[in-house]
Model the fold of this input.
Amino acid sequence: MAVPGKDVRGPLAGVRVVELAGIGPGPFAAMLLADLGADVVRVDRPGGGGLAINPEYDVTNRNKRSVIVDLKAADGADRVLDLVERADVLIEGYRPGVAERLGVGPDACHTRNPRLVYGRMTGWGQEGPLAQRAGHDIAYIAITGTLGMIGNPDEPPAIPANLVGDYAGGSLYLVVGILAALHHARVHGEGQVVDAAIVDGAAHLSTMIHGMLAAGGWQDRRGANLLDGGCPFYGTYETADGGYMAVGSLEQQFYDEFVALLGLTEAAPARKDLARWDELRTAVAARFKERTRDEWTAVFEDSDACVAPVLSLREAPEHPHLAARGTFTDHGGITQPAPAPRFSTTPTHVRSGPAQPGADTAEVARDWDVPALNEEEHR
Done:
């Protein structure tokens, strides 16, 4: 709901972004900028593309507008450059050199708009032995060491969907880079290229772990450390009904409350004895199997034991805390995460559903004063 006197468009209101259509981390980064209030125009190719789902459900295209431009046509690059001339940011996720071959690389764009922030989203980066190779999230996080950290020691590494690579190591680093470069452009009148590589971001996410490794406080193997499931009071446990509880009782005061509520006070001294961790884990696992997930949730919900139920994607929006905060929202019949983070003066919200390819061409042509876009649409 709009707040009187507040800017409901978000803190990036007035920022114009051109997104060259792609899949994965580029669209998510553009969605985040759009959620924050930027006017994001997605340049779709004729015939569509993107996720293998109905575009009406691709919520990474929410809060955006779409035009269709054939970049392979003789005047396709000029159409995009007309938009670039009026933009603050461009996002592309092609392999290195493709944007240049299409006539919309950094040099061409900066010739038209020297203040432009040119965001490049790739897995391997713009240079290096693998720069021209195909890849996906799983390969990017594999070579950075992050995938090898996740999972049980006697099983293959666990795949964290595409959250660690595409979105955490990719999209979020691209957005941070774009916002920093945008600040520089506004202060100094100088645009630049932001080279956001998933391998760089995913490696950067493990900075603290590398410090612990160097200090001897982290073993370079799965399931042997404080935060990777090796610790019996930082992990997940199955309940009587096949559900799971997540335990994060690291600090002494939280651990004391945890074992008290679990009814395992007699096992408490094993916390600091690594030789007894397996014994402690077995005792904790056996106790959790005595009750259902909901029963254990009720036991711990008013405590500081740092224990929570493991919910599914469909269950999460109904959690009382998330419901009270509005962490999820419903727009157009689709339940989806609400924009994050939150702002006191420039609140954000889902303003429009997924942009349909080409649906906004006339509107963008008018608003951005690029009449040639209409010529593209009516060929």
